[in-house]
Structures are given as C-alpha cells and as structure tokens.
Specification:
Elements lengths: L21 H7 L2 H11 L3 H9 L6 H13 L3 H9 L12 H18 L12 H15 L4 H25 L16
C-alpha cells in the first residue's frame, strides 16, 4: 500500500466540549444516584421516587415544581419520618457557646412539645442572622397547637427540600453523583 500525501491539508479531530448542564446530569444520572441525592434534600423515599420517576425535566422550574408537588402530597407518616431525620441548621463559625446552649435548650423544648426536630428554612439568610432567626422561630412556634405546627413544619420542610435540591442541581458538575450531601437543616 502506498501512503497518500495530503497536500496542504491536515486532519484535525473534532473537539467536543461537555455542554451539558447540571440539570442534564440530573436527568441522565443513574436512578440510584439520583435517589441518593434526593434523599439528602428530603429524607422521604416516597418523595425521592416521585421526583426521580418524572425525569427528564425540561428546565429547573419544572423540577422544582415537581419537588414542591411531591412534598405537598406527603402522607402524615412520610412527613413524620422526614421530620425525624432532620437536625438543626449548622451555626456559623464563631458562634458563642452560650448561643449553642440557648439553641439546644430551645430545640429540646420544641422537640418535647411536638415530638420531632424543629425545621426552618434559613438558606436565604446571611450567616450572621441564622442563629437569631432559628431562636426566634423556635420561640414563636412553641406557642402553636400541634396541628398548626405540623402544617408549618411541613411547609418549612418543603422549603428546605427545594433549597437543597436547587443547591444539588446547581452544584459543581454532576450533582446527582456528588459524594457530599447537603447537611440536614441547611
């Protein structure tokens, strides 16, 4: 075979770039990985299955709407299980031990009254306001009757799940397989 000479032409392989979005990764990731990611957002297998089973989502708004709808449809047992898996949000570095003590005492009073962890969405707040908001929230919600508080807790849990899901999908690269789940309560 005689080698062919190319006069003035060079073959350059086509370069491909990964132009997929984090939502594309979420939509195409293995089901087990997506379930794991979703359970870090809201510890409810029913919610995670429902959100995962409706993939692919055309846009982030559709994903968040589906997550909200699935959260609204949680049964009382699903809600109780999800609430039992929650913890208080992490406090900013430099928070004084007295603040930790006050928060622990308020949380213990809340848990004794309602039987589950206090949940509140604080992702929209600057770190220096988190402690005050959590303490004020616990104090004000301790006066609620149990049925009213369960409804408020369910709404806060839905907001937390939405914030966590948004963080997971917008996270670095392939959100659905991230080994670092969001911390509960944040």
């Amino acid at each position: 075979m005689t080698p062919t000479h190319l006069t003035g032409q060079v073959a350059i392989p086509e370069q491909t770039r990964d132009t997929s979005s984090p939502l594309d990764h979420f939509n195409t990731a293995p089901l087990e990985d997506v379930h794991h990611t979703l359970l870090t957002c809201l510890h409810s297998p029913r919610w995670a299955h429902r959100v995962a089973d409706h993939r692919p989502y055309p846009d982030l708004e559709s994903l968040l709407a589906a997550a909200d709808e699935a959260a609204y449809d949680l049964t009382a047992a699903d809600l109780a299980a999800a609430l039992s898996a929650e913890t208080l949000p992490e406090l900013p570095d430099g928070t004084y031990s007295a603040a930790h003590t006050a928060l622990c005492a308020a949380h213990a009073a809340y848990e004794a009254r309602f039987g589950y962890a206090f949940v509140i969405s604080v992702g929209h707040l600057p770190p220096e306001e988190v402690l005050n908001q959590v303490l004020a929230g616990i104090r004000s919600r301790l006066t609620n009757d149990p049925e009213e508080e369960r409804a408020i807790a369910a709404e806060e849990l839905r907001r937390l799940a939405r914030e966590r899901l948004l963080h997971a999908v917008r996270g670095a690269g392939n959100c659905a397989t991230s080994p670092h789940p969001a911390a509960p309560g944040t």
